[in-house]
Amino acid sequence: MNIKTLKIFSDLVENANFSKTAKQNMVSQSAISQKIRLLEERLNVHLLEKKKKSFQLTEEGAVFYRHAKLILSEYDTMLENLQNYDAKTLGGVNLLTNYWVGLYIIPHYVREYFKTFKNFALDIHYSDYNSLQSGNLDPKSDLIILEFPLHNTELISELFAKDEFVMVCSAQSEFKDQQTFSLNDLESKSLIGFSRNHPLRVLFEQSIGKSIGRPHYLLEFNQIELIKQAIEMHNSIAILPKSSIRSSLEGHNFHVVPLKDIQISIPIYLTYRKTRKINRAMEHFISILRGRALFEYNN
User: Fold this and answer.
1) Total number of domains constituting the chain
2) What count of other Cβ atoms lies within 10 Å of the Cβ of residue 259?
3) Helix (H, G, I), strand (E, B) or coil at 274
4) Are residues 137 and 56 in the same domain?
5) What is the pLDDT of residue 267?
6) Which range of residues forms the domain containing residue 80?
7) What are the beta bridge partners of residue 166?
8) Residues 57 and 114 placed together within one structural domain of the fold
9) Do both 71 and 104 map to the same domain?
10) What pLDDT, on the 0 to 100 scale, is given for residue 230?
11) For the whole model, what pTM was predicted?
């Protein structure tokens, strides 16, 4: 006798129909009849009294049904308690990031995380650059993902991924059919760019150094989506992370052109606290970021 048999018997009593019970439990009607017969033989009692096109419970069957329901209820409670216990052990992940990393870099890793931990939380919180760079961090954050390391004796930052800058132009741009884009062309073309203190603009301008004159910016924004809208409106160009334009390419709104004679990498750092206890969900998410799975877990 097992839980499956108890469930089949209870379903049969409640459905009063062999066919419906068989479909509900994904077995044949003959399998249902066999299980009931074996159950009666083992208990040495008659549980059902068959009639022409129906059946009814015997007195022994009614007693058995009542206790079967109690056992099934206790079994469900046990599973729920175990699941709650497992959730406490596994925990979840509180992730702190900025908007462009959160929108364009992290989603791939989040999809991989939920393939395994679909029932456990992954909360993503966003903060502005000034707060992040000043070290004003939410104490509840387990992991921090940014395009720059955080220098703090209580934190560990490690490089886990790289993006790269590309030239992005509209579908009507004069540059759309070029195989590469020379930075020298920036001397005669105004950019739609990031705001002056935005880390991506700082990284780009530091990387090109004095190889060309200081780029001229037609408009400046803090958010990539606003930059992309401005590219279309002004038929202009921008230097953006390659990852930020993939979804737009599907709509054929933009063209991506690699930079000529220079490749500017954008490092992405994972930061976590030295003293923070790492639960299994965090461990798994970190392993995804690092490109390998430390263990398998099936919900």
Assistant:
1) 2
2) 18
3) coil
4) no
5) 92
6) 3-89
7) 240, 258
8) no
9) no
10) 93
11) 0.63
